[in-house]
């Protein structure tokens, strides 16, 4: 992406939240952090499976154990596993999804789902249930509080991604400092 013809405000928005240095390992980079082939291969199977489990927990949270918080923690653990394996946290290095945006959108969804019932004369956080006929699944009950759970899910996943990004920047600074201290230099 070139920066010619892009307004300064848009360029700032696109780059304000990105780290100024690449702190996650690249596939071609030789670093001190050894990569495990077994962990990377297992991650290709486990990561989508854990995300599917998180989605199940998100939707099953009203009638069974689960909900937005537990689904967000499970999805966050999948991203932690991806980070530990040495891969990218968000899936690609030039991701357009920034963790503070995910956190903010989760907060907006939570607040909106809490306040919408007041427009219909109901108390805050009131919930309604609809029954929908789905062709292969039959009759499915959908609660309006699912929107609240989705907001909490986004909030938790955004916090975990932001934590991993911050942790990665700290690790990279520590590696840079140790490299600078290891290099022989002038003692003047």
UniProtKB/TrEMBL annotation:
<dbReference type="GO" id="GO:0005886">
    <property type="term" value="C:plasma membrane"/>
</dbReference>
<feature type="domain" description="Na+/H+ antiporter MnhB subunit-related protein">
    <location>
        <begin position="39"/>
        <end position="161"/>
    </location>
</feature>
<protein>
    <submittedName>
        <fullName>Cation transporter</fullName>
    </submittedName>
</protein>
<keyword id="KW-1003">Cell membrane</keyword>
<keyword id="KW-1133">Transmembrane helix</keyword>
<comment type="similarity">
    <text>Belongs to the CPA3 antiporters (TC 2.A.63) subunit B family.</text>
</comment>
<feature type="transmembrane region" description="Helical">
    <location>
        <begin position="142"/>
        <end position="164"/>
    </location>
</feature>
<dbReference type="InterPro" id="IPR007182">
    <property type="entry name" value="MnhB"/>
</dbReference>
<feature type="transmembrane region" description="Helical">
    <location>
        <begin position="37"/>
        <end position="59"/>
    </location>
</feature>
<keyword id="KW-0812">Transmembrane</keyword>
<dbReference type="InterPro" id="IPR050622">
    <property type="entry name" value="CPA3_antiporter_subunitB"/>
</dbReference>
<keyword id="KW-0472">Membrane</keyword>
<feature type="transmembrane region" description="Helical">
    <location>
        <begin position="65"/>
        <end position="85"/>
    </location>
</feature>
<feature type="transmembrane region" description="Helical">
    <location>
        <begin position="97"/>
        <end position="122"/>
    </location>
</feature>
<dbReference type="Pfam" id="PF04039">
    <property type="entry name" value="MnhB"/>
</dbReference>
């Amino acid at each position: 992406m070139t920066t010619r013809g892009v307004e300064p405000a848009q360029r700032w928005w696109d780059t304000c939240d990105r780290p100024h240095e690449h702190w996650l390992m690249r596939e071609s980079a030789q670093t001190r952090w050894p990569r495990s082939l077994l962990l990377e291969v297992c991650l290709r199977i486990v990561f989508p499976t854990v995300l599917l489990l998180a989605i199940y927990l998100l939707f099953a949270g009203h009638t069974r154990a689960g909900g937005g918080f537990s689904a967000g923690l499970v999805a966050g653990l999948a991203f932690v596993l991806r980070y530990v394996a040495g891969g990218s946290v968000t899936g690609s290095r030039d991701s357009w999804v920034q963790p503070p945006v995910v956190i903010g959108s989760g907060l907006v969804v939570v607040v909106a789902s809490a306040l919408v019932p007041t427009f219909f004369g109901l108390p805050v956080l009131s919930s309604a249930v609809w029954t929908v006929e789905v062709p292969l699944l039959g009759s499915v009950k959908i609660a309006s509080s699912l929107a609240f759970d989705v907001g909490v899910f986004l909030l938790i996943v955004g916090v975990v991604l932001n934590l991993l990004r911050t942790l990665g920047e700290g690790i990279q600074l520590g590696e840079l400092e140790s490299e600078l201290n290891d290099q022989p230099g002038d003692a003047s």
